[in-house]
Amino acid sequence: MGAVRNRSGEYGALKNAAIAAMKRKNDKKRERAEITEELINGTYAYPKYLIDHPDVADRIEQSIRDNMWKLQGKNAKPPASAAAKPVSVSADDFNDD
Q: What span, in angstroms and rounded, lies between the C-alpha atoms of 14 and 27?
C-alpha cells in the first residue's frame, strides 16, 4: 500500500503523522516542565514547612500512627488499647525452672 501524495507532491498522511507526533512530544515536554516546576515549588518545600511548624508535623505523625492499622487490608482491626490501670510485675512472679 503506497502513500498518497497531495498536490504539492508531499506524502500527506506521513507528514500529518509526523506533525502530530511532534506536537505530542512538545506537549509531553511542556507537561514535564510544569510538573518539575510544581515539584520545586510544592513537594520540595514541605520539609522546610514541617521544620518551621513542628506542631503541624506532630499532628501529622500522630494521625499516621493512629490510622496505620487501616493499611493492613480488609480484615484490619484497631490495635488493642492499653490496660486501664498499671500492672505490677516482679521477678518473683516467675519460676527459675
A: 20
- CA 19 vs CA 14, 29, 31, 40, 97: distances in Å: 9, 15, 18, 32, 85
The SS3 call for residue 14 is helix
Residue carrying the nine cell digits 484497631: 78
Could you write out the three-class secondary structure of 16-72? HHHHHHHHHHHHHHHHHHHHHHHHHHCHHHHHHHHHHCHHHHHHHHHHHHHHHHHHH
Supply the pTM of this predicted model: 0.38
Of residues 8 and 14, more confidence is placed in 14
Separation of alpha carbons 14 and 4, rounded Å: 9
pLDDT mean over 73-95: 77
Query: Can you give the pLDDT at residue 1?
Result: 47
Name the residue with higher pLDDT: 40 or 67.
67
